[in-house]
Amino acid sequence: MNKIFGIFSLKGNLNYEDLFINTLNSLNNNSRKINTFNDANIFSCAISLTTLTHQSKYDYQPYYSANGSLVIFFDGRIDNRNELTEITGIDKNIDNIPDSLLVLKYFEIKGTECFKYLIGDFAFVIWNKTKKEIICVRDSMGVKPFYYYFSNDLFVFASEIKLLLNSHLVSTEFDDQYIADSLSGLLSEKWRTFYKNIKRLQPAHYLKINNNSSEEIKYWDILSVNNSLVLTEEEIIENMKNIFSEAVRCRLNSIKPLGAELSGGIDSAGIAAYMQTFFTNSSNPFYFFSHIMPDYALEKIQPYNDERENIKLICNHLKINSYKFIDARKKAIIPSLELNLDINAMPTQQHYQAFSDALYECANELNINVLLSGFGGDELVSFFGAGFFNQLFIDKRFDLLFKELQYKYSHSKIKVLKKLLLIFAEIYFRRLYKYYQKYFNQSLHWSIIKYKNASLNPEFEKRLKIHEKVKYYSQNAEPKCFNNRELWHINHHHISQRLEYSQISANHFNIEYRYPMFDRRLIEYVLSVPYYYKVKSGKNRYLYRKTIENLLPPEIVWKEKGQGASIPSVMCRLINDKSKIINFINEAENENIGKEYIDYKKLIDWFQKIIKNNDNSVLYPSLFINYIEFLLFLKKCH
Prior knowledge:
The protein is of the alpha+beta class. Among the domains are: 3-173 and 199-220, Aminohydrolase, N-terminal nucleophile (Ntn) domain (Glutamine Phosphoribosylpyrophosphate, subunit 1, domain 1), CATH 3.60.20.10; 225-382 and 491-563, HUPs (Rossmann fold, 3-Layer(aba) Sandwich), CATH 3.40.50.620. 44% of the residues lie in helices and 14% in strands.
């Protein structure tokens, strides 16, 4: 939870005192110390240090290499410390070596080649005083945020966009494409932000800049993982248990009480179960936090129910007494979005973090500084298995295909034959299959359904060619076969985006998120397992279910579906705040705010339908919330 802010002037004309005075105050968020560094008015950097892990108690950055030419500024946690200590010659039993110093010594030996061997969550900067060169690095999945501005020989970087803006050194011109994506329901590329000239360093990349060149290089490619593991099913499951256990264990390194989100689904339940195996005899308490609906909304407001009974079942089975239900009954839509804007310094395209404010407040009151999450399971480790039958067909595993279809359709020969014909058509006769989907199945891609609600100014919509982009996405989004579908999901834009938003928002409450499902060792292992061990005997998520089978009740392990809402109280907020939202929209329209982007009549009509019909599946209130936040931002700038 360290924060980094720095400047590299390629012309060497930095004024150290003046440039940092606007930013240092905003770095001081529960930090024990802020350290600064300046190199001959060329490079300046500040880092605020916090103490979360046992090793971070001894962290006094910045650190210098043996010859004094390299300096490191590090935010994060390294999970393969034993491997690094062996390579660097440091005694692995010495617990007072901070991760930052370990990484610097590793870099001295291997250079940029070392990045692909680092396991953990991190973002860091290495300054080479001799070469006058900066290297910025971000972890494999993008758990730790890193933003930068590079223009006119000035490179400014930070852990948060807010720090960049506070420096008054960066351009704040809006990016119309980001706005178009936000208002049409799409997610922007991994490098794009709301500000045209502020970029995100992409996950698994490092950025190298000197007087002669700048280049962003991918150091690890998830697409290159080999999926040709040859083991028995028992061996695969046993290995999976060990790797998953380690993914949880290494994220429990904390000197303060631990917390975890518990949704009632099998991803967070599995993490809770493995956490319990490490804390049976420990005095370090931990708490579980669960989003639920207010009691008054049950059976009345979308999604009509929540997972509280499953959560209670999990907690009773694991003998967990310290859990909190978060119904957010006192929370409203607009204040939460205003706080989200203040923290992230821009409109965000997802809002899990915005509506987790009540959870963060509760965790903060309990002095929780580390929060584990099950996010990422659906994306790979417990992937639902879309494209499984198509993959079997392409691989000509017809015996297994027929067997699995019988499980799926309860041995109905007619349904099995129909599905086989559809698989054949989808793979070999794409136009015919699309015709069937359009006129007989009448199923539209979710992006088209969502876009139908978009309340866009027609001129803006035409200029940005929004309809064409949505149409292209709907036709080319999810691959049709299992293996490619897995890779598409785990590599999707929404992952690093949500990780960034959530990490920055939780940091505001002095909390650091950690995600066992995004452990790189776990990801590489799951990708190496043949797909027919991930769906088996009619059960999707089979490998993961077997991993947690002996730790949780069977009705949790083998349940088919959850309630489908990560934060089920959001619709309650919308309905409770109906009049305030309508008044706000009318005020914004009267002040001519955002009319170049938004059709206000359509926006009001859309909201009335949301409140009246109470239907998330067609009306997409999540997209409507994008509009409200965008207008709040414009009003603040007005």
